[in-house]
Design a protein that fits this description.
alpha/beta, 14 helices, binds uridine-diphosphate-2(N-acetylglucosaminyl) butyric acid
């Protein structure tokens, strides 16, 4: 199992490109199931989660070809309509095959995802929406078994604007009979990317990018192609890497509109943000980072996927910051590890009170999930001495060659095989 050995204290400086968005790819890939033939997804990141999705789709009979960042998915010969426990337990986003399989083939058997590293993550809204569209759903031995002759359009209102439930329902509704309305839909950029792909496939979707989506079902979709949006969470993580090391970094391909909330908090903290035509630059060379409170929210609010990284930055800020997660109440596994590096953080309910300290000191720390790991790497970049981050397989799920990118900016991170677990 790999670990990172980080020699901290290097200011980051330079230019780096942002990869395609993991969470967009994980929705776009199953969408290919909705049509027969070859779809092409450009700017697909080479991540372990993407490879897990490829494996899941290939078990169903989809052929995939990955060339550079172009992923071709050929759906001509689909034989199985199942997502087994072995893959779903590795990656919850496997649930995205449920809507397309059910809508196009009338049958899907998908393992229930279960809990995740930071607590329960239910899928009741996915199931409620499909049931409203007429699906018969049974739970058997840990599996969801969903059947229908053909889904019918329905009026669906979500209590919470769930990204996954919106994506699944949207995909299912494209081939349903009649019109579906999704009220309180998630409007994260990854959902907009998915909706635009479905439209290119021939779907009729209105209200894209808003909280009310209207979908007029069609009889058939055709394979198509789309450019995956850039990864706003990778971009945000790299921007914080610049800030926490008092560096100057330009991110090529970062999308300002997807990052407003993060950029605005960075500016409040005292960092200079410069927006160029195709890049975003963060200049923290003269910055005295100030504490800034953050409360996560659905898009366009501050993303929960950036909460752990923000806490890392606030650990070294001047003052006290309250960081609240309103999306995932228990997502604070990074805190005890940051404390091992010398951070002063206390968690109460879904809020972390972060009292900035003058310095962090390197130590061994343990990754527990993807974004927690990112926050430990950020802290390690700024800590005095050597920080070892164990279990970096979590990072490999969602960051494409993060150590290479950071090293190209002047960081000193070595990936080392380790028997430590
Ligand atoms: N929720 C329900 N019932 C449901 C679905 C969700 O109560 O049926 C609740 C969740 O418990 C949570 C909230 O709704 O409190 C939002 O969850 P959502 O469904 O939006 O999350 P998701 O689709 O499972 C995606 C990302 C996550 C990201 C969240 C929130 C993908 C593959 N995953 O998950 O990304 O944190 O949206 O923005 O798109 C990550 O990349 O590290 C990651 C965890």
């Amino acid at each position: 199992m790999d670990k990172f050995v980080i020699t901290g204290g290097k200011k980051l400086n330079g230019k780096v490109a942002v990869s395609g968005a993991k969470n967009a790819s994980l929705a776009l890939m199953p969408a290919a199931l909705l049509a027969r033939g070859k779809s092409r997804l450009y700017n697909t990141p080479r991540l372990n989660d993407v490879f897990t999705m490829i494996k899941l789709l290939s078990q169903m009979g989809i052929e995939s070809r990955f060339e550079d960042d172009q992923l071709e998915l050929n759906t001509v010969d689909i034989k199985y309509y199942e997502a087994p426990y072995e893959l779903v337990k590795k990656m919850r986003a496997s649930i995205y095959v449920l809507g397309p399989l059910l809508s196009r083939y009338g049958y899907a058997k998908v393992s229930l995802p279960g809990g995740c590293a930071w607590g329960p993550r239910p899928i009741n809204l996915h199931l409620m929406a499909l049931q409203k569209m007429g699906a018969q759903i049974e739970l058997e031995q840990g599996y969801i078994i969903a059947k229908t002759k053909r889904l019918n359009g329905a009026k669906i209102s979500f209590d919470i604007p769930s990204v996954g439930a919106t994506g699944n329902t949207l995909m299912a509704a494209t081939l349903a009979k009649g019109t579906t309305v999704i009220n309180n839909a998630a409007c994260e950029p990854e959902i907009t990317n998915l909706a635009n792909f479905l439209i290119k496939m021939g779907a009729k979707i209105f209200g894209v990018g808003t909280t009310i989506l209207e979908i007029e079902g069609v009889d058939e979709l055709s394979p198509s192609e789309i450019n995956t949006i850039s990864d706003r969470i990778e971009a945000g993580t790299l921007l914080i890497a610049a800030a926490i090391t008092k560096g100057l970094v330009e991110l090529v391909g970062a999308n300002e509109y997807h990052l407003y909330s993060v950029l605005s908090k960075l500016e409040e903290s005292g960092v200079k943000v410069i927006i160029n035509k195709d890049s975003i630059q963060v200049d923290a060379t003269d910055a005295e980072i100030k504490s800034v409170d953050v409360s996560t929210a659905v898009f366009p609010g501050f993303p929960t996927d950036m909460q752990a990284q923000w806490i890392a930055l606030m650990s070294l800020a001047n003052g006290t910051a309250n960081v609240t997660d309103t999306i995932y109440f228990d997502r604070f596994n990074h805190v005890p590890e940051l404390v091992r590096l010398g951070a002063n953080i206390v968690v109460n309910d879904n809020s972390a009170r972060v009292v900035g300290v003058k310095k962090l000191i390197g130590a061994k720390v343990m990754s527990t999930d993807l974004r927690a790991s990112a926050s430990l790497v950020l802290a390690g970049l700024a800590a005095e001495g050597i920080t070892e981050v164990l279990r970096v397989y979590h990072l490999d799920r969602g960051y494409q060659k993060i150590e290479e990118k950071l090293n190209s900016l002047g960081a000193d991170i070595q990936r080392v095989q380790s028997s430590e677990y």
